[in-house]
Each structure stands twice: as structure tokens, then as C-alpha cells.
Amino acid sequence: MKHWAKSIQVALVFIGTVVGAGFASGKEVLQFFTRFGHWGAYLIIISTLFFVWIGAKVMLLAAELKARSYEDLNKHLFGENTGRWVSHLMLIVLLGVNAVMLAGAGSVFSEHLNLSYQTGLLVTMFACFLLLRKGMSAILTINTVVVPLMIGFSAFLVIETLRNPLSDQWLRAPNAVSPWAAGLSPFLYAAFNLSMSQAVLVPLGAAIGDARILRKGAWIGGIGIGALLLAGHFALSSRMPGIAQFDIPMGGIARELGAWLHWVYVFLIFMEIFTTLVADIYGLTLQLHERTKASPWMLTAALLLLCFLAGQFGFGTLLSTLYPMFGLLSLGWLFLMSRDKALPPSSEAKPPPRLSA
Length: 357
Prior knowledge:
Layout: H1 2-18, H2 21-25, H3 27-32, H4 40-65, H5 70-78, H6 80-112, H7 117-132, H8 136-161, H9 169-172, H10 179-208, H11 211-237, H12 249-256, H13 259-292, H14 296-310, H15 315-339
Helix pairs in contact: 1-8, 1-10, 1-11, 1-13, 4-10, 4-11, 5-6, 6-7, 6-13, 6-14, 6-15, 7-13, 7-14, 8-11, 8-13, 10-13, 10-15, 12-13, 13-14
Keywords: Membrane, Transmembrane, Transmembrane helix
Protein name: Membrane protein YkvI
Organism: Cohnella boryungensis
């Protein structure tokens, strides 16, 4: 039972790390899957297989290498010198992605809570800093709470969608987009999200160090991500093509289902952004700590300050500029990960340091 409990915790962190602003808003699901009509469900299945397979490999390899941060993994994949430069680039882009997450939290405050954008940034930064003082245990705890709520919301959405007369659209809607774009879509989606998730999957794999727990966690987490994608795709398909006009498609569905559900959605989208921000800042802090040996809490504060400054450009600008660039790098990373042979860890891995003073 203890193994299963740990495996479920690993799975919840995996899901919470992948799910962020784009997923919660419905924009990612629409862009990568729903717009391809009845092909969408098959594309989600392909992505799910990658999440299970590569997610397990990242954590198992991190445990085998006793990796302290994702730079150790990149050096193994790309070689010592190239791996260091890839890690430099990933550090910059991951910092940009975290700035997008923080900006997304600010937008939630300004658009849905009638508070200022800057208030949203500051509140989120402060909460993230306090939580990260407790290290990996805090990430495990917050995802244990947030991810089940998100799963419950998705299940409710599916039940409500079944009442829609167009609920079978996900099975019969035609694909009006290029087959090449559809074929590439699940690889881009899995590559982007898995490469971004390694900032926390690597230290998580090293901290757990047990192959059985990590494999079970990858299976549960990967299938959970696939189920959430299918739930979102199912709900969005029944409202196509009208729902495609919204910047936050899931917000349009939530408003349609009632005021109280809209508030539940607002809370969940903020928490999904927050869990991804917390996990990625943790991974970046470990990465910089390995390089500089500076105090982890000072590094966390510096990273959050940089995200705050970058967040002044706004959510939309950051999203459209940084995400395509990271997607190109991610495909190469996914190819190398798929070829690498991850071995079961032979001994208990040394856990990464707690982020405390």
C-alpha cells in the first residue's frame, strides 16, 4: 500500500506539472487536438503513450544517474559540452515559461477577480516563495490537493456535455486541417510538455529512487493526463466551431454552465498555473544551486523577481513569443530521450536539497 500511495503522489506531481495555463484555458487542447475533428481522440492516444513512456524514462534515468538537476540529464543525452549549452538555453526558456505562468496568474486576478494585474503577480510570487521553502514535500502536497479537484471538474464537464445534442461531435467532426499538421501535433505537444516537465521530473526521480514506484507513477500520471485531454476534447468538440473564437475556451463553457461553476473554474485555472510555476521554479533553483552553490532561497527569490519583471510584457505577448521557440528544441530532446536506454536504479538515490535557508 505504501508503494501505491507513493506512486499516486508521483502521478499527481506529473499531472500537475504538465497541466498549466494553456491546458487549463482549453487553448492547448483546441490547438493540438480538437481542431482536427474526429482525429483528435487518436492524436491524444499517441500523446498519452509518449507521456507514459518518456515520463518513466526521464524519472528512471534521473534515479540511475542520481541527477541533481536537469543539466545532469542533458549532459548524458547530448554530451558534456553540448549538454551544458543545451541546459543554458533551457534555463533561459524555462525562465520565460515561468514568466508566462506568472503573467497568466496576474491575468486571472485582473480579468476574473476585479483586482489589479500587479496584485496578482505579487500575491502569486509571495505564495510560491513561501511554499518552496519546504522543498519537494510541498510540491507533493499541493498536487495531492489540486489535481483531484481538477479531475473532479473534468468529470463533471463530461457529464454535462453528455446532455448536449452534439456530444458525438468528437467522433464524426471532419478534419479540415492539413493531415501533416495533424500527424505532427501529438509529437509537438508531448515533446514540449515533457521537456518542460523535466525541471521537476528529474529531481523527483532522484528523490524517490525506486524503479517500481516511478514506473507505476508514470503509468498512472500519463494515463491521467490522457484522460484529462480526452475530457477537454470531448467538451470542446460538442461546441465547435463557435468555441474556437474564445481566448479561454473552457471559460466560455464554464460561464455557460452557471455562475458557481465559473468561480470553480477560476480557482482551478489559477491553481493549475500555480502548481506548474512552483514545480518549475523548484527545478530551476536546483539547477542554479548546482552551478553557483548560492543559498537556494535567495536563488528562488531572484528567479521570481526576474519572472515578475518579464511578466510586465503581458501574458499574450510572452506566450506567442516563447512557446514556438521552445517547441523546436523539444523535438530534438524527445528524439534523444526515445533512443536512450534508461536502466532501473541500482541503489537508493540521494535526494535533492530542500529549498530552505
